[in-house]
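Ticket reopened. Same input as before:
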Amino acid sequence: MAECAIDAIFLTTEPEVRYFSGFHSEFWHSPTRPWFLLIPSEGKPVAVIPEIGVAGMQHTWVDDIHSWPAPNPADDGVSLLVDLLSKLCRRRGRIGMPMGHETSLRMPLIDYQRLCASLPAIEFVDATNIVRTLRAVKSEAEIEKMRFACAATSIGFRELPLHAAVGQTERQVCQRFKQHLLQLGVDGSPYLIGASGCGGYDNIIMGPTDRKLCEGDVLIIDTGSTYDGYFCDFDRNYCFTDTTDEARRAYDVVYSATEVGIQSARPGVRHSDLCKKMWRVLENGGALGNDVGRLGHGLGMQLTEGASNMLGDDTVLEPGMVITIEPGMTFAPGKLMVHEENIVIRDGEAELLTHRAEPEMPVIT
Amino acid sequence: MAECAIDAIFLTTEPEVRYFSGFHSEFWHSPTRPWFLLIPSEGKPVAVIPEIGVAGMQHTWVDDIHSWPAPNPADDGVSLLVDLLSKLCRRRGRIGMPMGHETSLRMPLIDYQRLCASLPAIEFVDATNIVRTLRAVKSEAEIEKMRFACAATSIGFRELPLHAAVGQTERQVCQRFKQHLLQLGVDGSPYLIGASGCGGYDNIIMGPTDRKLCEGDVLIIDTGSTYDGYFCDFDRNYCFTDTTDEARRAYDVVYSATEVGIQSARPGVRHSDLCKKMWRVLENGGALGNDVGRLGHGLGMQLTEGASNMLGDDTVLEPGMVITIEPGMTFAPGKLMVHEENIVIRDGEAELLTHRAEPEMPVIT
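Engineering reply: fixed in the latest deploy. New output:
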């Protein structure tokens, strides 16, 4: 903060508030009330939260808790923020907040504008990089949660062929899988998509639908399942009875690109380097394009975090970063093949959190 | 829009984009890419979305789809928006967007500021009420999805005592319940909290924790489970073997307040009236306060939507609105009792979507 000449950081979103306070509640699904956390340049965080959250916040390490009877559309925490920020920002007159790429403002825009107008002497500046850099390198406690989510989900994927069959719908296969993951110990699967098609699928972010799985189909399931607030994010591909040579070749190519990605992900390497190395394998294997826009990303309290394996992102890998290795390609018009694994950057070789995908496409009959 | 003198509405959040386009994807869990929908004052919505979403958007009724290769931190859709908005806003020079209570901005603040600066002739004004009013009254198709989520979850709650027992942890009971709900057909339980304590619980938004349930405990489970993108939101209370007379009395009082709420919820009644009627019952029953801040709210694509059963909210109930009736009170220091049911406002008496709670607190042994 001193380097950026800011007095404090102002946070409004769930992962950011949770990261610095430990406050973990699914209540953020309700958009009614805003929640705020202030991180002074010295000392502990200060919470400015609705009354309904006080009992929960008292169980965290935060002890300076300010609350108001919310909802109160006329003043949902704004006057409290004005008071506290004017005191916190006396030295430099600058407050940082995440305003850049991948961020959002989780409070009404009108209230934010009112806050700025009430503090004419304070400048609100971007602090995206401070928060992103801190969050990118995980503690061993954070990694342990992701290791569990990855391991449980890997077992679920491995056993999926025991429960799935030709004639079931995408939705049935995915619902059964979701139940199995809960039995295996994940807390839930906020992200779980399924897409299929004869010889390949055309997207990796929709579904599951009521489409019936037929002989020759390729099905992808991609899931962000969580354990104690931390995500895994990876996928597996299956074919039903059999599929085209083209799809099988695409599987091999993307499997190889994943190998290259895992082997190359070491401290000092840049995300853009990882992308180049994987893309070379995909291109040599016949890739027609990639509409995902990148070949992997950060992972943690959110399904995707921070840096991207893409050209232009020259962030350097450091030990403790958790990322996905996610090569994908269009191998025929309207047909995609995407693989994904989750790893921790370690000194030397990366640690694989997921159990590696099968080297040949698993068959469901 | 004509009344508000705006040319178009600009949307950035998942429920709003889904409401007007039908685009339904869990991919919004990734904060990396912004998604935009423009609603012109005449004609169909216009989508401005990352390339990864084009195949999915093509399956909706939207046919004017603009995309860019995302992520692109240097220009994540902003220049596309500048082009389209300058064309759409030629007549009145005003664009509406949800900026008020319960809204947020799901794009980087820096990009929003750049967008405004690039369109100096266009004024961005609040359109919260237009969107909220449209969404508050549900179609029968929307109600049908919520009816299913409510019915399945009601069965789950009714059968919960068959699976729970003294000695289990909150987490074990909730995980088992979550699995059962999936078996009963819900798509997931994005919101599922559990809180317990001897003779009462102290919050309704945290947990479940590893606390072991003991004789005399009261446990509340509150869940927002979904079906095809629509939520239920209600809770049930249980006691373990037995509990205090005080807790049982509180259950009776809050049960009666719920009855009054359900009976009173008719077209023409205001949310503030509903609050007053329920609060009278709670106060007469010994309520010491209520830190939830309201006694129910709108329900639909989000866990909580729109108007609140609280003083100051004079929104008038209309047929087709789906709301929760959620009286709650502190009945002893640090001890809460909250009930909740989901209803549709109909001509005459409301339709109950949830299966009414037991008139006496269910006992788990």
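Residues 140-163 of chain A form the longest helix (24 residues). DSSP finds nine helices and 18 strands in chain A. Please confirm and we'll close it.
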